[in-house]
Design a protein that fits this description.
Blueprint (H helix, E strand, L loop, with lengths): L4 H19 L6 H23 L1 H25 L4 E15 L10 E9 L7 E4 L9 E6 L8 E2 L6 H21 L10
Antiparallel strand pairs: 1-2, 1-4, 2-3, 4-5
Helix pairs in contact: 1-2, 1-3, 2-3, 3-4
Length: 189
């Protein structure tokens, strides 16, 4: 039988691991956290391929892997940036990221703001839109342990990444349900 629980359990384990690393007072060194997270994602994907197999397993594991990576993004965005600093923009640098190939995404402009903040941190802020002009003040939320990137105050919400993760994990679960002969979905969903 195919259970919806394993995809949900994998997402919960990855989210918990990333949240522990990013927000926990007893978080591990970065190398340990990255290696542990990679093992969790790889293990979940390997178990999926072994259980489902075939072309359904290939596409389902892609949905699972991207869903788990979006879970990491949601955990990053949900991590408390406990401090807020009012910073002055010292300079604004723009960089245009070109698009290659016909039908590719449009060019993207990245804005890097050099900041002068009390205490010297954060020193810069990057975004895909202009946040403030030179000389203006901007409120920046940041993690004093410097585990996550600073963000404009009030603009780091995990909902978009979490919703995309849920959709992809549900698609992977549905592929598994349809791919395994004689499988049904149990009531623990």
């Amino acid at each position: 039988m195919v259970h919806r629980g394993p995809a949900r359990a994998a997402a919960a384990a990855v989210y918990g691991w990333v949240h522990w690393y990013l927000a926990g007072p007893s978080s591990p060194p970065t190398a340990v956290a990255v290696a542990g997270g990679a093992l969790l994602v790889a293990g979940a994907c390997a178990a999926y391929v072994v259980r489902v197999g075939g072309s359904g397993g290939f596409f389902g594991v892609l949905f699972l892997a991207v869903g788990l990576l979006l879970t990491v993004t949601a955990a990053d965005q949900a991590t408390a940036r406990a401090e807020v600093a009012t910073c002055v923009v010292g300079a604004v640098h723009t960089k245009v990221q070109a698009s290659y190939g016909e039908g590719g995404p449009p060019e993207k402009t990245v804005y890097r703001l050099e900041l002068r903040c009390p205490g010297g941190y954060p020193g810069e802020l990057k975004d895909d839109r202009p946040l403030a002009a030179v000389g203006e003040e901007i409120k920046v939320a940041y993690d004093p342990q410097r585990r996550v990137s600073p963000a404009p105050e009030g603009e780091s919400a995990p909902w978009r990444a979490a919703l995309c993760a849920l959709v992809l994990l549900a698609a992977g679960t549905e592929i598994a349900r349809r791919s395994v002969p004689g499988a049904g979905v149990t009531a623990d969903a």
